[in-house]
Design a protein that fits this description.
Elements: H1 3-7, H2 9-19, H3 25-56, H4 77-91, E1 100-101, H5 113-118, E2 123-124
Parallel strand pairs: 1-2
Length: 125
């Protein structure tokens, strides 16, 4: 699965929906392991993203990042393109996550079509 999928808000929202479902014990246990792996990958992503922001972000005289009123990092035009290129490259990395079969989820599962689409790659036949 691509790292971009893990950082997608739709995927994260659908994971929260899935985790609230009544699941068989073994599946709930397996999903806890998946969640730990996702959190680990998101932590690494955030750490690298901060480093890249610091590398390309516009700096004040004291060396700190220049932020907008809404705490967005400022960029020069050239550095914005380099930042986006690095982030796109990072987001395209493959992350190895265990999958869960639909059968493992049990019969009491209620997910929307959007949730199923968002969780594609994690949920398999």
């Amino acid at each position: 699965m691509k790292l971009a999928k893990l950082i997608d808000q739709g995927f994260q929202s659908s994971m929260r929906v899935l985790l609230k479902q009544p699941l068989p014990l073994k599946t709930a246990y397996k999903l806890r392991g998946v969640v730990k792996k996702i959190e680990e990958e998101l932590g690494k992503y955030d750490e690298i993203r901060r480093e890249v922001l610091n590398k390309y972000g516009k700096k004040k005289e004291d060396g700190t990042l220049e932020l907008t009123e809404t705490n967005q990092v400022q960029f020069e035009q050239d550095s914005m393109q380099a930042f986006l290129q690095d982030i796109n490259e990072l987001s395209s990395l493959d992350v190895d996550l265990p999958t869960v079969t639909v059968t493992e989820l049990g019969d009491d599962l209620i997910l929307s079509a959007d949730d199923l689409i968002n969780l594609d790659g994690l949920l398999v036949d």
